[in-house]
Amino acid sequence: MSKYAYKTLIVNVSDKTYEIRKFEPPDVLGPIDLGVKLHIDVYESWKYDVFSDKNVVVIGKGPFTGGKLIGTHRMIIVFRSPLTKTLHVSALGGAAYKFMGTGIDALVIEGKSKNPTMIFLEGDENGNVGIRFEELSIKELLDIYEGYKGRRGTYALTLYLLDKYFFFIKKNNARAFVVGPAALSTIFGSVFSIDFDVNKRSLALGAEDSAARGGGGSVLFKAHNVIAVIAGGKFRPAKTNPKLNDLNLINKISRRIIGKTYVEAVVSATVKYRFDEKIKTGGTFGVNYPHYKDLIPVFGFNMIYLSKYMRMRIHEMIISHFWKPFNDEVFIKTKSWYTCGEPCVAACKKVWKGKKVDYEPFNGLGPMIGVFDLALTRRLVDLVDELGLDAIEVGHIISWIFDAIERGLLKPEDVDLDSKPYFNPLEFRQQYSKHNADLAAKIIEGLVSKKSTVLRLIAEKGIRAAAKELNKMYSDRVRVRGVRFEDLVVYIPFGDDGYVTPNYYWTPGMIAPLFILGRYWTNYTPTFMEPEDFAASSLLRAIKEYEIDNAGICRFHRRWAEKILQSLYSELLGINIDLDNHAKTYYKRIAEYSVKANALPRPWEGSKTMDLISSIASELSVKEWMEKFSSEFSKSINEWWRRFYMKVCMELSIKCK
Length: 657
Known about the structure:
CATH superfamily of the largest domain: Aldehyde ferredoxin oxidoreductase, N-terminal domain
CATH architecture of the largest domain: 4-Layer Sandwich
CATH topology of the largest domain: Aldehyde Ferredoxin Oxidoreductase,  A, domain 1
Shape: globular
Distance between the termini: 42 Å
Largest sheet: 6 strands, mixed
Number of helices: 24
Mean pLDDT: 95
Number of domains: 3
Oligomer: single chain
Helix content: 40-55%
Low-confidence stretches: none
Number of strands: 17
CATH class of the largest domain: Alpha Beta
Strand order of the largest sheet: 2-1-6-3-4-5
């Protein structure tokens, strides 16, 4: 029988009380299981406003931290999203390497503090956790955000913590999770974390990451008035489970299943993220552009309307002005590769001139908004990180606004701009990047400060609800132009007003009706197939990604981890369980929560979202569906959506509305 239990600290920040609870397998294996269970069985959070203190935030790690397994120190955050209105799972790389020192597996935050609150967690060698609370006034917090020792926002707050609580941080090898100004004023706030360099008494630039998707930072502040969690300590999980350190056992498992030693399996599975000798680059940014070429989303997904010739011209501009400066600096001149905070052979963090460069944020604040200059995009990503925003969401918002101005639905002054962006890909020149980047920076700042009525609407309600309101506000423009605001942006609707924007891939899988999107819980390859087949493959990927996240394993390690994860639970933890069935059961529970929250997937609403489906079918010459879309577009689009959705619901044995 397994001795494993998921040790959870439940903190009520209203009255500053707390308790330790242990959850046993097979009911709870990891942080997502815990989050789903608590939201459904204990707090019934769907009954309340999304910013109610019943919307508990679960911050947890997987069960394999602190031993010889690599890539197992990802922090997972579970909450009800103010965007989708249903449960969401967000992830933050490497931070569990220090969090494990607390001696707990997860922190659950309930209640709401009167003042902005910081939670300090300190574990001793035996796994006993100490907790204390510190508060700031809202004025003190805003003053720090405005500027502290030359830093703003999240960086300023983290540096303030390092200065004021340096002894605690150094003693406990602690790491901080903070929210930024965006958490106070928008629904897109992220949970941001940058490691400390205690030897230099400074921030470890390049070792930053965000749990950004879904608005978890906004929930942390608006529902609980929590602005930071600082966690560390001296506990090591292998003390209570020596098998975590048994490399002979891990090698035995790896050889039996994969046919390689464990390290060999890890090295071969993470080539893309470290350095691919075949294409002389590495990391998501380095690999994706030469791999996907003209399929990369640019200009607010408007590339779906362009010829392959035009898309390839844009691709050449990306390679010359965006990708090559990165590759020359990171792989030829400096070889500036780092990890997310844990020892890891992947060294996936490629740092360009002091800034970690990943595909999603840099594409969202680069080619997606008509900026083809790496230095300019770096400045925008820095700004988004400072403010504590979701870079993927912001990329969609800016490109939507730019497109609306280009199409005449908005005027620059509506969003506090003094000129139009260059957003026609047929007329674009690379030198226009500076102009677009300057306008984008104004929009980002204006979104957080709610500088105009339009930006306030987007900040408070999100893209989908804002689009409906803007249709009414500018009904004359909508009528004259013959296009609605929702026709110029790609999103997936949930319930009456929930939504999420997709990651930057031209594929049906990113916008298909699944229960958690905006993540990689889907088949996101650029392909097209019958909806039932696509649904089956996407649901399988959702289940596998659930397993990896629930184990606190970085998805960059999924190629080896998925193969041996079942055996790791069995032989390292003594838990004998059908992992696929377990994950499918909990994914079904997420779907059932969506039913209760009135946040089930809804059919696509905007023409660009629908065109993304038909265009990839055309791009791949899927003749049957090309003919269907050509002859009866709306009917065929709805058919594909409905058949996909019904297949998912049938596989999960749930009733879909």
